[in-house]
Amino acid sequence: MKRILLTIALVFGLLPLYAADNSGDIRVSVLTCSPGQEVYSLYGHTAIRVQDMGRGTDHVFNYGVFDFNTEHFVWKFVLGETDYICMAVPWEFFVREYEARGSSVVAQVLNLTDSEATHVRDYLYRNIQKENCVYRYNFLTNNCTTRVMDCVDSCVEGNIVYSWNEEPRTYRQILHEYTTDFPWTQEGNDLLLGADVDTVLSYRAKCFIPEYYMGALDGAVVRNEFQDTRNLVLETQTVVPLNRAKAGGQSHFPLSPAEFGWLAFAIGLIVMALEFMTRRMFWLLDVLLMLAHGLAGCIILFVFLFSSHPTLDSNWLVGILNPLPLIALPFVVRAAWRDSRTLWHHFMAAWLALFLLFMPWMPQQMCVLAVPVLATLLSRQISYILHYGRPRATKSSKGRSRRYTSRRKR
Fold first, then answer.
1. CA-to-CA dists, residue 120 to 51, 112, 117, 161, angstroms
2. Of 103, 150, 181, 392, which one has the greatest count of Cβ atoms within 10 A?
3. Helix, strand or coil, per DSSP, at residue 241
4. Which of 324, 309, 295, 293 is nearest to 194 (CA)?
5. Average per-residue pLDDT in the chain?
């Protein structure tokens, strides 16, 4: 009798352990969240949900966690040294956040075998351990979406054949899709990103964007060694609907970058005409322009030389946006104060004209502001060249003219 009771106790004691590791009770879903209004959420988000009925857990594993309060966060972000964290949160918390934001959440339930589901679960729980949870974030090549993709690829037993979007695309073209309604954000991206973002991407590389990965998963199949195939996605559900009222709109600067740039050019032409008619140079305006030009150049040159972000070191704009105007500024001010010419304006006029002339053949798509801003700077150099190039009355000739006038009066 004791042996029977002991056996029953042992069986019932092992049942919880068996249930805790029952791989047949694991359900894995890839979650795709629609874009939000904040800069960091403009491109959407990807996470992965693991429902483990045996253990009674329902967690969302999120590779997009960062902390603004991290020491020197902004400085590290500029240098491309930002670390992100993989964190597991209860499903209810995750849903509540995106419901409050107004973003939709689409769940693609994966068609996994028991062993594959177990591998995904174990893979993710290893990733949230203290020694594994931190990774060096890179927006284009190592982000929340690529991390989820790597997890699925490494845990599925067989070869995944994705349903790729066949249309050739570059990084810049894809980014523009998501920043059309945010022109100044788009302009900031284009100002910093170099020629490397204008190369055509491989099919897989395009999946750095959540919705592109969702589309690739939608028609994906798993092919085993016997060439048998199964759909990778079992079903697709919209677990949080899009709420446009909560998503709201974004207040914009009154002028678009193009409007702002050409308005500046028009003002430059008006100033140039006034200087020609009055024979006076408004050199204080040039001091402000050279300060803005040089400070913007400092930022471009700094990230070009020191940032670890990819594509920033291939920015052709560094040829025209650099700190050189700050170096020349004291000499230009001294020449303007003495009303004398300086070679700076001739040099800059030639360089700006050459840059504008060869811009269409450069392997980089320039930002919208490039042409009107460079044309405005060129107009300032031309105004100086015209001012100091035309004949001007000397003091002696002015004196002779006054004496001749007085004689005629007598």
1. 11, 9, 5, 18
2. 103
3. coil
4. 309
5. 86
